[in-house]
Design a protein that fits this description.
With about 300 residues, this protein is α/β, with parallel strands linked by helices. Among the domains are: about 160 residues, Ribosomal protein L4/L1 (Ribosomal Protein L4, Chain: A, 3-Layer(aba) Sandwich); about 40 residues. Helices cover about 45% and strands about 5% of the residues. It contains 13 helices and six strands. Strand 4, helix 6 and strand 5 form a beta-alpha-beta unit. Helix 12 packs antiparallel against helix 13. It is elongated and about 140 Å long. The two termini are about 70 Å apart.
């Protein structure tokens, strides 16, 4: 939560009454949309219908938590409670030190007309909340500002909705001068509207853009493509060529030098025929080979 928890902090915001009612009826409408309830994360894939309405005689006879669990399992709504049980985890942050150690998801909301004994039976189930139809709470219908809460109605509470909020034909009997807001879109089947002949006749034809095949080139074999990827590759290639030329010149030079040395040695040997052999002077072929290798490595 942002800001320090001081007494002079602006805790509340004034909101127009009509805006509050508009948000409340929007949350009620969203709770009857299967897609929005699914999107909020509730497990309702096996319940008979949305909204889920239970007869007063069935729910008022529940006085034990065991019976409440059995009824929810019969309606295939206990999976949402099991989701809450599985989601319990330790809170991240300093809230662990302030009596808020654990967090968990929200389960179904039970809306009733008059408080009965079944409230004590359901209150031990994690994630299950209650609300009177006469005092519907937006924070319970849309926790965190997310529409689509899974709501279980008692029959008497569901019948009272028309009396409290009115219908499209008659205003509310409880709220003075209040009528339900009209839908901005009367037909919600958008696919049928877009694909209708009236709409499609005014649209342009679909343009089929030509597909361009991009030729892939290997930069290890194509020098031009390699230079596009690495502009310095051109300089590297030039250095390599120059270095190879210099090495060829050095090899040619040392070959000529070695041939000259062999010819000079042969001339000396011709002049010394019949004379006692003496120690050879000058560098041997092995020494020239070492000098050649040293020059290549330099």
């Amino acid at each position: 939560m942002f800001g320090a928890t001081k007494t002079y902090r602006r805790w509340h915001r004034r909101v127009n009454k009509n805006q509050r009612r508009y948000a409340l009826v929007s949350a009620l409408a969203a709770s009857s949309s299967t897609a929005l309830v699914f999107a909020r994360g509730h497990r309702i894939d096996r319940i008979p219908e949305v909204p889920l309405v239970i007869a007063d005689g069935t729910i008022n006879a529940i006085n034990k938590t065991k019976k409440a669990v059995a009824v929810l399992k019969t309606l295939n709504a206990y999976a949402d409670v099991q989701k809450v049980i599985d989601s319990k985890k330790i809170r991240a942050g300093k809230g662990k030190q302030r009596n808020r150690r654990y967090v968990k998801r929200r389960g179904p909301l039970i809306v009733y007309d008059q408080p009965q004994v079944f409230l004590r039976a359901f209150r031990n189930l994690p994630g299950v909340q209650f609300c009177s139809v006469h005092r519907l709470n937006l924070l319970k219908l849309a926790p965190g500002g997310h529409l689509g809460r899974f709501v279980i109605w008692t029959k008497s509470a569901f019948v009272k909705l028309d009396q409290i909020y009115g219908t499209y034909k008659a205003p509310s009997q409880v709220k003075v001068g209040y009528s339900l807001p009209r839908s901005a879109l009367t037909n919600s089947d958008l696919g049928r509207l877009i694909n209708s002949q009236e709409v499609q006749s005014h649209l342009r034809r679909k343009k089929n853009a030509p597909k361009r095949q991009v030729r892939k080139k290997n930069p290890l074999k194509n020098l031009g493509f390699l230079i596009k990827l690495n502009p310095y590759a051109k300089t590297q290639r030039r250095k390599t060529i120059i270095q190879s030329r210099n090495v060829g010149k050095r090899v040619k030079y040392f070959k000529q030098r070695a041939a000259t040395a062999r010819a000079a040695r042969a001339e000396k040997l011709k002049g010394r025929e019949g004379k006692p052999t003496q120690a050879k002077k000058g560098k041997s072929a092995k020494a020239y080979r070492k000098l050649f290798v040293k020059t290549l490595l330099s």
